[in-house]
Amino acid sequence: MEGDESMKKELVALLDYWEKNKGVSKEFLISSLEQGLSSVYRKKASLEENIRVKIDPETGDINFIDEQGNQVPPPSFPWERIAAQTAKQILIQKIREAEKAAIYNEFKKLENTIVTGRVERFETGNIVVAIGRTEGLLPQKHLLPHDRFHVGDPVRGLILEVRRPNKGVYPIIISRTATDFVRRLLMDEIPEIRDGLVEIKAIARFPGDLTKVAVDSSDPRIDPVGTCIGDKANRIKNIIKELGGEKIEVVRWYSDPEKFTASALLPAVCERVVFDKAKNEALVWVNRDQLFVAIGKKGQNVRLACKLTGWNIVVNRSEGEGPATLLLGISEDLAERLSKAGYETIKSLIQADSKELSEKLSISEDEAKELIERAIRHMQDTQPDGTLDTSEN
User: Does residue 284 lie within any of the structural domains?
Assistant: First the structure.
């Protein structure tokens, strides 16, 4: 049965357009239309259950077919007007669904890879990023501290997650703080990593501040650390620039845990490393001038070394190098007085009573409280997970 000619031409044109330009198959759309129209006619025109709608993909003709495949007369109802209205609604709905499914399938394969997009707009601190024919979300918590973007700026990030399409939810989540963002940047910048000549064995990161990368090579002719840093540090500088100045330290990986622990604490020089496997601890001794280097700003060096190696690293001063409380940045005189008063370790100072401490050292109680607070902050900074452990070894 032929319907309105203009409607049929428009329908065929729409089907061709979405197939050629949007990648939505004509067969899928026609099948959706046939099912949708059949359902509408049964409700509004009392179409019998054994009659179905059949659309000619070449002409756009809408026919009614019985169970034997024979064409039957259309229902006694203004079905052509209903067809035009319903077809438009179904097409819009199905095309949107197909587009979302195509985007999901395309980007799901790209999870954990780097994408380059453009800043489209800002939503409550989050950045909406235009990526090809869709949009992704770069949440505020996944931005680096020094990131400053404006509308239209290019932006790179790691596709952290691709979620099933859902109303009001961005399916693609982008991150610049994920550890794997640095891993992928290294792979993009350094051909030897991409080719498998140099392997990233471990990586740990404090986004915006410091990343430590442990690398190795099975080829004895290749220096893995030098290869990653590059001539005049150009390779690593490019990555640092992308990360807004975040420092990247590349260290050598060793199968020997003692060597690897010492390497992970670079640039500090270790004197001795002893393992307590029962406590999963690596006890490290360094000279006095290496104490702060080993621990690092806010304890970052030792905490990242813990993450790289999997050991809880405890840094100690070597024998004859002064009391452990020197790690708190206090004077030698005060450290010696603490030691003589029975506070030889930082843990013992944390457990001290401020009033008793002030009396023993002849200092004000406020000064004693400040010493205890300093010890607590130091312990929190140097623990791998940032927690406070006051148990004595």
Answer: no
